[in-house]
Amino acid sequence: MTKTISFNELRRIKTHLPSGSTQHIADELNISADTVRNYFGGDHYKDGKSVGIHIEPGPDGGIVALDDTTILEKALSILGESLELQDVE
What we know:
Elements: E1 3-6, H1 7-16, H2 21-29, H3 33-39, E2 53-56, E3 63-66, H4 70-79
């Protein structure tokens, strides 16, 4: 499922994750922690992979189109939030 949110909202989610969550998500999905970091706007491509996010400049940090919401769903589950974030259009 494709999801569009603001870059700042994506970073807010990452910032509010408890310590160790990046590794926990990586372990659950059998991917590297750097790949999870890249999903949230990092640039750890030596050990991590590209994760299908597309960033367009704009207000609120720009618009991010996520090709796959699996990592986002895991992060929101950890935060106890719903995937019903406000879509940015």
